[in-house]
Amino acid sequence: MNxxxxxxxxxxxxxxxxxxxxxxxxxxxxxxxxxxxxxxAAGLRKLVVCHLDHGLRGRAAAADARFVxxxxxxxxxxxxxxxxxxxxxxxxxxxxxxxAARNARHAFFGECARKHRCRRILLxxxxxxxxxxxxxxxxxxxxxxxxxREEQRLVTESGxxxxxxxxxxGVRRAELVAWLESHGYRWREDASNAEPIAVRNRLRNEAxxxxxxxxxxxxxxxxxxGAADREDLEALEAWALERAKVLDPQGRLHLPVxxxxxxxxxxxxLRKFLQAGGIASPERDLxxxxxxxxxxxxxxxxxxxxxxKLRRREGRLSIER
Length: 321
Prior knowledge:
Elements: H1 11-15, E1 22-25, H2 30-41, E2 47-53, H3 58-74, E3 78-83, H4 86-93, H5 97-116, E4 120-122, H6 127-139, E5 151-155, E6 161-165, H7 173-183, H8 199-215, H9 219-244, E7 253-254, H10 255-260, H11 263-276, H12 284-291, E8 301-303, E9 309-313, E10 316-320
Parallel strand pairs: 1-2, 1-4, 2-3, 4-6
Antiparallel strand pairs: 5-6, 7-10, 8-9, 9-10
Helix pairs in contact: 2-7, 4-5, 6-8, 6-9, 9-11, 11-12
């Protein structure tokens, strides 16, 4: 790789099936272009490039789409281009810019999954993205140092089940850029990434550099390692819940068993139940409102993100959509 390698940092690539079809989210930026070229270099050829114009950047976005289509064409890959009106979604749903954009992407990926009969989609989130996610989740009151998973199941608003895979979580963005440069690959820069208009931009450009300066250490690496340790703890939590048998045969939470658990395990059980139901990052406030359903004197329904409901009925908790 011309002096720039990722030995041991992308273990997913070694075991990935070369026969299966994979959708790949490609924005045109350095991260996703690097992922695409790395996949092709590793022998994955049954790829469908998926690019969404969020309707936020005018001519620049149109140029991004043309660029992604050209790259896909040169690599001999299928390409799906989509468009969304994120600002209209923000107004209609009351979502933040980042939430509306993310939900629009998931809806687009769901459409691509149906068209190509493939629900597996590869995303280019890397270690720096992971650090931003951990820090933001912590500020929002998450349970521990919670980051993105390398593999995640997600249910779109239209009911499409997606399997998200993030092979680059162990790689720094600077390494990806260096690899692209060493091979002479081009990519598109989004100038808005440097503007302090979104939470992630400020975490990336202001908060993380300041934390590194204050601590005298690599804050990004510390947060990424903390997220990895959190995964080990969650495995132990899952084992404890399995022994507690909190789910009934229909996959609902069994309230009499749940009430008998310590409050800490009640929170864990409810959080994992919501995650399994498609709520990727249930916030602490939602968990506490959900635990309120254990008391029969309280209302029997809690609203969920995306329009679903967590309902208490006949001694069980279930998710309705």
